[in-house]
Structures are given as C-alpha cells and as structure tokens.
Amino acid sequence: MLSSEQLNALREQIDHIDLELIKLLAERQQLCDQVGQHKISAGLETRDLEREKDIIAKKIALGQQSGLSAQYVQQVFQLLIEQSVKRQYQMRVPPTGELSPRVAFLGEHGSYSHQALNQYYSNSQVTAKPFGYPSFSAIVEAVIKGEMDIGILPIENTTSGAILEVYDLLQGAGIHIIGEDILSIEHCLLGHAENLGQIEKVYGHPQALTQCSNLLSQHPSWSVEYCPSSANAIEKVIKNKQPGEVAIANDFASQMYQLPVVMRNISNNKRNFTRFLIIAKDALSFPETIPCKVSLVLATRQTAGSLACVLNEFKSRDIALSKLQSRPIPEKPWEELFYLDLEGHVDSPNVQAAIENCENLCQFLKVLGCYPSAKLAEAV
Question: Which of 297, 286, 202, 300 is nearest to 244 (CA)?
Fold first, then answer.
C-alpha cells in the first residue's frame, strides 16, 4: 500500500512525462508539416498506405520489446499518422482553391460557429475572411448567390441532437457539402460576477441553455433570456455592464471580448461535441486515399419495406452508415425524406453500385457531397 506522499510523487512523475510527451508531439508535428510541404513541392501523393502499414508493424515490434501490447501501440501510432495525414492534406488542398475564401458563419465574431471556422482552417494555408450571418438560411443563400465562397453550418450535437432546420436547407439546389469538422463544446458563464451567488440573469442561445439545464435548475432564482446567438448574449452583458448578468458562451469568445470567465465547463454532458458541415456552390473531388463520407438525401417509394431495401443495399456491401435522419416533405403529407451519411468514397465501385441500385428503389435520390471525414478511418 502506497502512502499519500508516495502516490503524489508517482503522479508528479506522470505529469512530468506527460509534459515531455506534449513537447515531443509538437516537435513531431512540425517535422510532419515539413514532410507535407516537401510532398507538395515534389508533386508526391499525400498518403502511402503500404508505408503506413510498415511503420505501424515496426512500432508494434518495438513496443512489444518494451512490454507494451500490440493493440495499444497500434492505436497510438495510427492516431498520430491519421492526424498527420489530415494536416498534410489540408495544407495541400485549400477548399474551393481559394487562399482567402469568404466564409459565412452563424452569429457574430466569437460564436461557436466562428470558433469552428477557425478550427477548420487551422491546419491549412488558407486565411479565411469570416462574415457573420443572422440565420442558417441566410448563410445558404449567400453561398448560392456567390456572395460567400464557403458556408459553415452546425448539423448535430451530441447532447441536443440534430439541427433540423439545417437538414431542411440541404435538399435545396445550388450547394454541396465539401467538408466537416467536429468542435468540442465547453460552455462557460461569462460576465463580471464575482461568484454564482451574485448572478441574477443568464443570457444564452436556446440550445446552449438546454445543454446547461442542470446548472440552471440548481439556481431557480436566475432569470433566463433567449438570444439568437452566443455572441449576442455576450453583447448584452457587455452593453448592460451589470455584475448580476452573465452569458453562456465559450472561452474563445471570452478571449475575443475580454470578458472574464465566472465558471467553466457547465454543460450537462461534459463530452459535448457539435458536428459542422462545410458547404460550397460547387462540389470538390478528393482522392480515394483520403477516408471520406458520402451524404445522400432520398425519398423512398411508398411501399412496404422500401426503406429496408435501400438500407440493405449498403449492408450487403459492408458499407457503414453513420447517420440516418428523417424529415417530412411539406408538400406531401405523411411522406418523408431520409438523409444518410455513409463511410466511403463516391468513386469507389462498391459505393457507386449501391447508389445506382438505390436510385432504382427511390422516387428521388441526390448526392449532397463526398468529403474527408472529420474522424479519419483506420489506415490499417
């Protein structure tokens, strides 16, 4: 049995090792970026799957010599390789080919959509020009009209589920999904309150308020005011200058607006993520060596088992579906559109055959986009 002093000493050693690991990971990333730049200059392919297999096999052998399990070593180095591939690919291919694209996001500067935009372009040579829009429909319209090169739209959250308004906008003509990203959402209380007891009013976007309902229910004396965006909630707190008023937003906004954090990580679910879609007027093509998703929207025939027949086309070819979302067709009561995300590349014979067969089973089918997956598939 370890004493508390011995336990603390071990934990300090682990913290020291973790710090060294972070430094080494940063150094490794810089070297991988240099390799990526060389590949671009030399006209080489971003990904070499055979080399990746060989690298991981060698790392597994070295790890086993040090008493580490093969599965553990494989998972660690596979993650490292996948992140390097993603960074190198983003360095190579700026979305839409623009080095300074105009990007539409929801809300004002400092919103979660603005943070997602920054994260999406963080690994590329692109310098995005961000423009805030008041609604999802305004973003889509700006992209269709060519006023914006790119739009970024939240599509689903791990706590509050699908954002149905965005799904309804995707079926329209003139937009294509060209990418996705996943943002970790850490809600904070921002304001000038010195403690929770001083708070009287909370401003927030409806979804943010829902995702923080546990904390709000613990303080029934707090009044709540809905805002169209988190940035708008912050603006109210800054404008009113009342210590009893706070906004639900993120640390990104706190730094941008120089507004103190009263309390961090207030979400009901501490693992809170939002998936964002990147849209453009024209589709992009990506090499099959990059793990991709394909998004479809379809309407099945109104016969028994029609949806099951469609889904079986993918099951029989071992194509994984990561999303299935239904939405009503306004002009056709009791009929549904189905949105599907599948793991694969639209140019692969397997996926092509499944889509062609599904077209024969459906009243309507449209490919919304084929784009790199935010969670890269295993290379080995």
Answer: 202
Is residue 265 a contact partner of residue 184, using CB atoms and an 8 Å limit?
no
Q: Which amino acid is at 217?
A: S
Q: In angstroms, rounded to a whole number, what is the distance separating the alpha carbons of residues 139 and 135?
A: 7
Q: What is the 3-state secondary structure (H, E, C) of 223-285?
A: EEEECCCHHHHHHHHHHHCCCCEEEEECHHHHHHHCCCEEECCCCCCCCCEEEEEEEECCCCC
Q: Which H or E run includes 99?
A: none
Residue 319: predicted pLDDT: 94
The whole model's pTM is what? Answer: 0.74
What's the token pair of residue 333? Answer: 């009561």
Nearest to residue 292, comparing CAs of 380, 181, 375?
375
pLDDT of residue 349: 94
Please report, for residues 181, 216, 238, 248, the alpha-carbon distance to residue 258 in angstroms, rounded to integers and kept in the order given: 26, 24, 10, 14
Go through the domains of the chain in sequence order and give each one's CATH number: 4-92 (1.20.59.10), 98-185+273-280 (3.40.190.10), 188-263 (3.40.190.10), 292-372 (3.30.70.260)
| Alpha carbons 220 and 205: distance in angstroms, whole number | 18
Which regions of the chain are under pLDDT 70?
89-99, 123, 125, 375-380
Q: Is 347 exposed, middle or buried (0-12, 13-18, 19+ CB in 10 A)?
A: middle
The helix-helix angle for 349-361 and 306-315 (nearest 10°) equals 170
Per the listing, tokens 């959509």 go with 113
C-alpha distances (whole Å) from 119 to each of 97, 115, 291, 314, 349 are: 18, 6, 19, 32, 33
Q: What three-state secondary structure class fits 348?
A: coil
Rounded-to-integer distance, Cα 99 and Cα 34, Å? 20
Closest CA to 115 of 280, 260, 250, 267: 250
